[in-house]
Amino acid sequence: MTQPRPALLIIDMQQGMALPQAGIRNNPQAEANITQLLATWRAAGQTVIHVRHMSRTPGSLFWPGQRGAEFQPAFLPLDSETVFEKNVPDAFTHSALERWLHMRGIRRLLITGVSTNNSVEATARSAGNLGFDTLVVSDACFAFARADYHGTPRSADEVHAMALANLDGEYARVLTTGQALTLLAED
After folding, report:
1. Which residues pair with 183 in a beta bridge?
2. Domain tally for the chain?
3. Which residues form the Isochorismatase-like domain (predicted)?
4. Is residue 1 part of a domain?
5. Sign of CA dihedral 124, 130, 131, 132
6. Could you tell me which of 31, 77, 180, 183 has the fewest CB atoms within 10 Å of its CB?
7. φ and ψ at 24, to 5 degrees?
């Protein structure tokens, strides 16, 4: 028995993420991979959900009304697609996302976006804890370089890899764009 096709969840693909102030990142191909998934999901008439971070911190790149808070042009939602706004990393917190998914019988999520160790990880952890069949697309996410708890600088690739390791097998299954595309071919 095959599983239902997952809804595509695109997290925080906003203009501020593309600005130099956002930091040094990995996965320069992430946008192309998300675009490919988005086009495929749309062509198949599958559910697409967009999440946008709206900061509560004045001066933030994602403060409401700022250009950085707007979606990147390649990821503008269609009128038929749902948008959830959040002001914490987890897309399930203080939103109606869980209820919206349950009301539509959606039990599988394919998560993409930014940043892997923040909003993607927080959302995937909640999705897994809430019982959703959660899939995270490793090459359709990216992270930013940062220092670890001990102050040791970590590259964006290291931060990304650790976040994926935190998720894989515990809260979600991590796969590639190629593997995700095969999900729509399954009967």
Report:
1. none
2. 1
3. 7-177
4. no
5. negative
6. 77
7. -85, 125
